[in-house]
Amino acid sequence: MIIIIIIIIIIIIIIIIIIIIIIIIIIIISIIIIIIIIIIIIIIIIIIIIIIIIIITIIIIIIIIIIIIIIIIIIIIIIIIILDPLTGLVVFGK
């Protein structure tokens, strides 16, 4: 009878140990998955921010180039008008 009780106790202990091990493994896997997801989200956010910065920079550069071109054209027109009034009239089609 005692042997049977001992065997039952051992079996119960083994089952409890197995359950605990399984729970620990599940927790570890869950933590790893959560960490991976967080890292992926952070990487995506960083990439989006970089893309936005690049787009804004490109837009600013284009605006600056356009402004510079307009200023250069205005300066050229003013120089033409000052240097040669007749050419100035021709430029404006008068």
Automatic annotation (TrEMBL):
| Residue spans crossing the bilayer | 5-27, 33-55, 62-83
**Record keywords:** Membrane, Transmembrane, Transmembrane helix
Name the chain's protein.
Uncharacterized protein
Say which species the protein is native to: Dreissena polymorpha
